[in-house]
Amino acid sequence: MGKMISFALNGNKMAVEVKDHWTLLHLLREELGLLGTKEGCGSGECGACTVIVDGMAVNSCLFPGLEIAEKDVVTIEGLTSPDGTLHPLQKSFVENGGIQCGYCTPGMIMSAKALLDESPNATEEEIKHSLAGNICRCTGYVQIIDSIKSISEGGVEEVHVVAWKNKEKDE
Ligand code: FES
Ligand code: FES
Fold first, then answer.
1. For 36-59, how does the pLDDT look when each residue is reduced to its tens digit (9 = 90+)?
2. pTM score
3. From the CB of 136, is ligand 2 less than 6 Å away?
């Protein structure tokens, strides 16, 4: 059984048929071809699949696809501008060594973005708390936390942008 639903994906409204048993991760990767969101454990343990739904960071591997009806979904693809300019968080991860193999990175960045949208000057403790569900097997977390702190301590305005495409529409 499937159902037609409407939602906004990275600022673009769309209508898609979603099967009852699809997760949001399946919809994004397998049906819509957005491969930036990663599948790690598939059971809510690693955070690799984190995306933002109506401002909240969620594990898309557990999130029912049908539940995004009429909601705003932002994935890692929504953070890069159409001309390829990286979002300040993405740049910061590159500059601060927050990326090694990169498998955890989209999920880390989406968790960080949800935090900073809510709390732009988040403290180190708040950053650590927000990343509690995101596992990295490479970096030891220090560089990841530094990457986020350099934004929360620097007050970069663009970090509040939900998605670049939305920003362009507002201008
Ligand atoms: S793949 Fe979703 S939490 Fe690990
Ligand atoms: S950079 Fe490899 S898992 Fe985090």
1. 999 999 999 999 999 999 999 999
2. 0.91
3. yes
Q: Ligand 2: which of 39, 50, 100, 110 to mutate, judged by most atoms within 8 Å of the beta carbon?
A: 100
What is the tens place of the pLDDT at every residue in 86-104? 999 999 999 999 999 999 9
Quote the Cα angle for 63-23-160, to 5°. Answer: 50
Q: How far is the CA of 116 from the centre of ligand 1 (A)?
A: 21
- Residue 93, both tokens: 């991860």
Query: Which structural domains are found in the chain, ordered by start?
Result: 2-78 (3.10.20.30), 88-164 (1.10.150.120)
Which ligand 1 atom lies nearest to the CA of residue 45?
3
Distances from the Cα of 2 to the Cα of 22, 26, 76, 77, angstroms: 9, 14, 26, 26
